[in-house]
Write a structure and sequence with these properties.
alpha/beta; Rossmann fold; globular; eight-stranded mixed β-sheet
C-alpha cells in the first residue's frame, strides 16, 4: 500500500479530518455540510451580480470600503472537486486581501457537476470573467490589471480559463495563481495513487473527474481546457504561481505542470510544502499552513507591484 508521510505537526491532528469518500450516495450529504468561517469585517462591501440568469451564474464583487478609482482585480474560482462549493468560500480571503492590497475581488458561482459536466462550469467561469472585463467601469476596476486564481478544482478551472482566454484573445489576463490545482483526469502519477490521503482521496478524485467529464472520462478525447495537464501548447500564458503539498494527491501533476509552464517560457514560481496534505490551509493555526497562505499573498503583492 503506497502512503506518504504527513508533516510532523499535522500527523497528530489527522483524525480531526477523517478520510471520507465522495460518490453518488454521499455527495448530497457532503453538499449540505457547512464550513465554519471567520466573522467578516465591515471594511469590504460585497455585492452580487447576475451574469447569466438562465444558468444561475452569479459573481460576487468584493470592494474595500473607502477606496476610490479603478483598482486591480483578482477573479477567483472556488474549489470543491468540480462537484461542490460556493462563492462564499472566497469571502474570508477577500475580506483580508481587498483591504490589505487595495484590490477588487470577484468570486464566481458556477454550475456544479455531475448535474452540469464540462464545458458548462468552465463556460460559466469565462462568462463571469467576460462580464467583469466588460463592466470594469461600473464595478471600479482597471481592466488591464486583472489576475485569476483558484484552489483545487477552482485551480483547474483557473488554469483552463487562462488557456481559454489566451486562445480567444478577448480578455487580457495578467497572472494566474494556482493553489493545488486539480488538472489531470488520468491519475497516472505516483502521488495520485497514494492511499490514505487526507481531505481528498484517490477514490474521491476519480468520482470528481467522472462527474466533471461525463462521457469523456476514461477516453483520449478529453480536451486540454477540461484537464490542462493534457495541453500541448503552454506558450503565451500569463505568469504563474503553483503551490501544492507534498502529501497532496495532486503533487506530481502540479509540479509537472509548473515545470512545463516554465519550459514554455512562462515565468512560473513553484512551491511544494513537505508533508502538507490537500487543504492544508484548514490547519490555520499551524506554521506550515500560515506559510502556505503567506507565500501566496507575497507573490500576489509582487504581481500587483509590477502592474503599478
Amino acid at each position: 500500500m503506497a502512503t506518504v508521510r504527513l508533516h510532523e505537526d499535522i500527523e497528530p491532528l489527522k483524525d480531526m479530518f477523517p478520510i471520507g469518500q465522495f460518490n453518488a450516495e454521499t455527495l448530497p450529504g457532503m453538499r449540505e455540510m457547512t464550513m465554519e468561517t471567520p466573522e467578516l469585517s465591515d471594511g469590504v462591501e460585497r455585492v452580487d451580480h447576475v451574469v447569466d440568469e438562465a444558468n444561475g451564474v452569479v459573481v460576487r464583487v468584493h470592494r474595500p470600503v473607502g477606496q476610490e478609482g479603478p483598482l486591480p482585480c483578482l477573479y477567483s474560482i472556488h474549489g470543491g472537486g468540480y462537484i461542490m462549493g460556493t462563492r462564499d468560500f472566497d469571502d474570508p480571503k477577500f475580506d483580508q486581501w481587498c483591504q490589505e492590497y487595495g484590490i477588487v475581488g470577484v468570486s464566481v458561482e458556477y454550475r456544479l457537476s455531475p448535474e452540469t459536466p464540462y464545458p458548462g462550469p468552465l463556460d460559466d467561469c469565462y462568462a463571469g470573467l467576460k462580464w467583469t472585463y466588460d463592466n470594469a467601469e461600473e464595478i471600479g476596476i482597471d481592466r488591464d490589471k486583472i489576475g485569476i486564481t483558484g484552489a483545487s478544482a477552482g485551480g483547474g478551472l483557473c488554469a483552463a480559463l487562462a488557456l481559454l482566454s489566451r486562445d480567444r484573445g478577448e480578455i487580457p489576463v495578467q497572472y494566474q495563481l494556482l493553489d493545488c490545482p486539480m488538472i489531470d483526469d488520468r491519475q497516472i502519477t505516483p502521488s495520485s495513487r497514494l492511499d490514505d490521503l487526507l481531505i481528498w482521496t484517490r477514490e474521491s478524485n476519480a468520482f470528481g473527474w467522472q462527474s466533471y467529464l461525463g462521457d469523456l472520462y476514461g477516453t483520449d478525447s478529453v480536451p486540454p481546457t477540461a484537464a490542462v495537464a493534457r495541453a500541448e501548447d503552454l506558450s503565451g500564458l500569463p505568469e504563474a504561481y503553483v503551490c501544492v503539498g507534498g502529501a497532496d494527491g495532486f503533487r506530481d501533476e502540479d509540479i509537472a505542470y509548473a515545470m512545463r509552464l516554465y519550459g514554455a517560457g512562462v515565468p512560473t514560481e513553484l512551491h511544494v510544502y513537505p508533508g502538507a496534505p490537500h487543504g492544508v490551509a484548514l490547519f490555520a493555526h499551524l506554521e506550515i499552513a500560515q506559510r502556505y497562505i503567506a507565500d501566496q499573498a507575497d507573490w500576489l503583492r509582487r504581481q500587483l507591484a509590477k502592474l503599478g
